[in-house]
Design goal:
Strand 21 and strand 22 form a beta hairpin. The chain has 13 helices and 24 strands. The chain is elongated, with a radius of gyration of 52 Å. The strands form four sheets. Strands 1, 2, 3, 4, 5, 6, 7, 8, 9, 10, 11, 12 and 13 form a 13-stranded mixed sheet that branches. It is of the alpha+beta class.
């Protein structure tokens, strides 16, 4: 059946279907052409961009390597920043050793000393007093070795330029020689003074060749506030030599500090370095002898909070090796979840993705919005490289992410013209669709005229038009006007019928008045006769039947006339709010009712005055037939497209063949002889006047009266 209807529709709309399919196909071809041009150009550019990113990634990997084969990635958390304060960083191995020892004392030559320290650890500071491009620079490295087999030590190395070292002579004030102060700030402030002295090994074994050891110094350490006794927990040596083309000497101090001297819990700590050690800030003061002043002058004053420039850092490697400024990420152990350890997003004043901060392109009048749209659809270019650290099982993944490469000019121009063709095709399709809608409207109006219906939504056509649609509309307008004339005549006929109905209702009212008068005349004598015939059962029985017949006739005409004469005045009413207020008023006098439903927001077209009458009858009926001690339950809900009210009482069920008849006049299940079953009858007819329905349902333990109203929109 459905296939046959579809074929019939397709045969009637063959031209429309063919035109629509052709237009959609044309738009599809143009759209695919745009996609093909953009995708092919984009793929070529992305391949070139990825090759460039791979090269930059390789340069970055090389830039993170030190001369000894170590890598910045061994400790990316501490070696990432260019500017940082002095603190103890973690190294894989120690750089500490004695320059002069018993094994090399005989052949020792300070000119042959080679000291290579880990460059990522080194932080440089300029002399503030002589700041400038050529100002002297102090280099310092403070480190710990987590897996140190020799013990728990704090290692340090300091290098700075100096004219010549003036050694300290035992018994003289320290201020009369060169010295260095190490300051540690943290939970406890600590400071040590390091002085230069003649190597004891040279004095003991080769006193006649002491001049050979002029550039080598033994370091003695003291508490800054107690210089009368040296500390055995600090071991260090220093050597000096010419370091630059200007002939300026430099001195290098290398030493280690027993961690227990600073952190009393270091030996027993579960992990190394301890949190105490990692929290320490470090400062360095360098004092050099000034002959003119006759005392040592402070040449370097580096406070613990002062930041220096790292000799080697991940930020420097990124800035030097990634000129495109693509986003770089370092992730730890990809097999274990790829935890992010560093990202170039941490750098300030740099674009996150290559090209995102480039100046807007001027395409010689081409639409800028089109360029932006294409750039948004272009894929991000990504390059990654795994890096394995020497002597470690850790594997790092370095990822470079670049923004979409811009399309070439020729691709943009081609796509622009294709896009114009696409818009023109869409406009033509819209015009055809509009004409189709107009044609369907004309068809619908014509069909309405055929079946003698008044058309809806028809507007008069233009008086002056030369198109086919305008001519057809004028012809159709003539037919519409004729149909409207016929409709007006039909409406007048309906009005006459309504007047006839009103006349019949008036006659009905007169009939009721007559019946009321007759009923009154008959009821009074009957009442007297019933009183007088108490001792005559047979006569009393016949008079009682007559009384019931008269009462039934009187009540029936009263109810019928009342229902027919009153028209329901309905409006949108919130039944949830209405029922809550209605039951609240009832419960002030008694507590026999319980409500289940929402508090507000359920609307239906209702005559609220008539609805109160209906609920009074239903509640009286429920109270009469409920089990003693039970509550009458009132429920409000939505069922399909209706608003439903259930008035339920627990009590005896109704026979299935009487579920419909209980709403008829004169039908009652009560024992009282005076009850005529009028309540449910009135309730049903009042609801019918409101276009609602009611029926009775037997449920598990009682009977429910179910009312259904059509849903309504809330009143404005």
């Amino acid at each position: 059946m459905v296939v046959r209807q579809f074929k019939r529709w397709a045969s009637r709309s063959a031209f429309t279907i063919a035109a629509a399919v052709g237009a959609v196909a044309l738009i599809g071809v143009i759209g695919y052409a745009i996609y093909d041009v953009v995708s092919s150009s984009r793929e070529s550019d992305q391949q070139a961009k990825k090759a460039a990113l791979d090269a930059q990634l390789a340069d970055f990997a090389l830039a993170t390597r030190d001369k000894d084969g170590s890598s910045l990635l061994e400790n990316p958390d501490e070696f990432s920043r260019i500017q940082r304060t002095l603190g103890f960083v973690s190294l894989k191995r120690s750089f500490y050793s004695y320059f002069l020892n018993r094994g090399n004392a005989k052949q020792f030559d300070v000119e042959k000393v080679i000291f290579d320290w880990p460059r990522p650890c080194v932080v440089t500071f300029r002399n503030v007093a002589t700041a400038g491009p050529g100002a002297p620079v102090l280099e310092a490295c403070f480190a710990v070795v987590p897996g140190d087999t020799s013990g728990r030590y704090l290692y340090f190395a300091i290098r700075f330029p100096t004219p010549s070292i003036r050694r300290h002579v035992s018994g003289t004030p320290i201020a009369e020689a060169d010295y260095v102060t190490l300051k540690f700030s943290g939970p406890r402030q600590t400071a040590f003074v390091l002085t230069y002295e003649t190597p004891k090994l040279a004095l003991e074994r080769y006193p006649s060749f002491i001049s050979r050891y002029d550039g080598t110094h033994e370091i003695s350490a003291f508490y800054a506030n107690r210089v009368d006794r040296s500390l055995k927990q600090i071991n260090a040596q220093a050597f000096e030599r010419p370091s630059d083309a200007n002939g300026r000497n430099s001195v290098t101090l290398v030493g280690r500090i027993d961690a227990a001297l600073i952190d009393g819990q270091a030996v027993d700590a579960a992990s190394w370095p301890s949190a105490w050690v990692k929290s320490l800030g470090i400062g360095v003061d360098v004092y050099q002898w000034d002959e003119a002043a006759g005392k040592s002058i402070k040449r370097y004053d580096i406070e613990p909070e002062r930041q220096g420039t790292a000799l080697m850092s991940i930020e420097q490697a990124y800035l030097l090796s990634v000129p495109s400024r693509a986003k770089l990420e370092i992730r730890d152990d990809p097999a274990a979840g790829s935890v992010l350890r560093w990202s170039s997003d941490q750098l300030s004043n740099l674009p996150q993705v290559d090209g995102s901060a480039s100046p807007p392109r001027d395409r010689e009048g081409q639409a800028a919005w089109l360029t932006r749209m294409i750039d948004r659809q272009t894929k991000i270019v990504r390059a990654s490289r795994p890096i394995e650290l020497v002597g470690s099982r850790n594997t790092y993944e370095v990822v470079l992410t670049s923004g979409p490469p811009p399309l070439p000019d020729f691709a943009l121009r081609t796509m622009l013209w294709f896009f114009v063709a696409l818009i023109l095709s869409a406009v033509l399709l819209a015009l055809g669709f509009f004409a189709l809608l107009r044609l369907r409207k004309v068809t619908a109006v014509t069909y309405g005229l055929i079946v003698n219906r008044a058309p809806h939504g028809w507007s008069a056509p233009p008086r002056h038009g030369h198109g086919e649609m305008a001519a057809l509309s004028r012809v159709l307008d003539v037919l519409v006007r004729r149909n409207v004339t016929r409709s007006a005549a039909r409406d007048r006929h309906i009005q006459l019928q309504q007047m006839q109905v009103a006349l019949e209702r008036e006659l009905l009212k007169q009939r009721k008045a007559i019946l009321d008068a007759l009923g009154h005349e008959i009821r009074s004598p009957l009442h007297s006769l019933l009183t007088q015939t108490k001792d005559n059962p047979e006569m009393r029985s016949r008079l009682e039947r007559m009384r019931r017949a008269v009462e039934g006739l009187y009540n029936a005409t009263s109810v019928e006339t009342g229902l027919l004469s009153g028209m329901a005045q309905t409006r949108p009413v919130d039944l949830a709010k209405f029922l809550n207020e209605f039951l609240s008023n009832l419960n002030e006098a008694r507590t026999d009712y319980v409500y289940f439903g929402v508090a507000q927001g359920v609307f239906a077209e209702v005559d609220d005055i008539a609805l109160e009458t209906v609920l009074d009858h239903l509640f009286n009926n429920a109270l009469a037939f409920r089990y003693a001690g039970t509550l009458v339950q009132v429920r409000l809900g939505l069922v399909d497209n209706y608003v439903q009210i259930d008035v339920f009482n627990q009590g005896p069920l109704i026979e299935e063949d009487r579920l419909e008849s209980i709403f008829s006049f004169g039908v009652s299940s009560r024992a009282s002889s005076t009850n005529q079953g009028q309540g449910l009858f009135v309730a049903k007819w009042q609801l019918l006047a409101m276009k609602a329905s009611i029926h009775a349902e037997n449920r598990t333990d009682g009977v429910a009266m179910v009312i259904r109203f059509p849903k309504a929109i809330a009143a404005a």
